[in-house]
Amino acid sequence: MNIIKSIVVAAAVVFSMAVGASAADKVKVGFVYVGPIGDHGWTYRHDIGRQQVEEAYGDKVETVFVESVPEGPDAERVMRQMAKGGADIIFATSFGYMQSMAKVAKEFPNVKFEHATGYKQSENMATYGLRLYQARHVQGIIAGMMTKTNKICYVAAFPIPEVIREINTYYLGAKKMNPDVEIMITWANTWYNPGKESQAAKVMMAEGCDMVAQHTDSPAPLQAAQAEGKLGFGQASDQIKFAPKAQLTATIDNWGPYYVKRVGEVMNGTWKTGDYFGHMNDDSVQMAPFTNMPADVRAQAISIKDAIRNGEYFAFTGPLKDNTGKIQLKAGEIADDVHLNTMMYYVEGINAKVPGN
Predict the structure, then answer these.
(1) Domain membership flag for residue 352
(2) Per-residue pLDDT tens over the stretch 279-295
(3) Cβ contacts of 71 within 8 Å, gap of 6 or more
């Protein structure tokens, strides 16, 4: 057994012991994290949500988490151990946990399961996510206005619909403001590896990129941008303290209200399966202050952000072609959630191929 597996199994055992020793009337909540809670990004924000559950319900609830759980058999093992240990509801916070959760949910029909960013549901398994592409589009607006080289870039984790969707919306925002903009994409093939994330950013900056965006979970690409005198965007949380001269804004994932609501529904017996897709208009998708930019750029960014929030502006509105020339959205057509959650194409103008396609 390797070190990572040993840690995962040991953590699951600790969870089992902890929930077994808790008061019977407490609602027991488990969280499965793909990265460390100290990543200052995706997992960090999920764990803030977990803490908000504890703050909301006090001694009526018990929460436990296992961090840095690899996607695959280890995730299945952790979820099963949580369910056996008495968890009433389990949240799994990465796309790659979907198959594992679907399997374990069948084995424990009395436990509630929730999967972030996936699409498989059952009577006791729900899905949830955030429309983070809304904030990413605003980042693109800023990047298109501020690039001096007309080259923007993106450090990407894995080729799944969520990541492809945000690459597209970032590019569409930049292209709206700057017809000459080009985008470079490097796949880090990791959610959290500061060294690989930083290196990916450095390679693209060496090729002329001066606006660094990312869909990986550490501040490393933003820090790399600052070291090179370039600019960029924080991921999942406000990361300006790591790069005060480089961060223009950041997407902020606000998971807490959803977690508090769903745990409350378990408590009062009203939980039902379903799909949640949080929006700027309910404050689940937020943005850090707009900094290090001219007043006109800030004003344009605020204008687009407000229009998105108010339901007046939709980035994915037709006519929209993919980069093979195929019509994906007809004139006036707005992408529905199914389209958004299955997006595996690059939009017209991106000179690259989606890995695996």
Answers:
(1) no
(2) 999 999 999 999 999 99
(3) 34, 94, 96, 97, 100
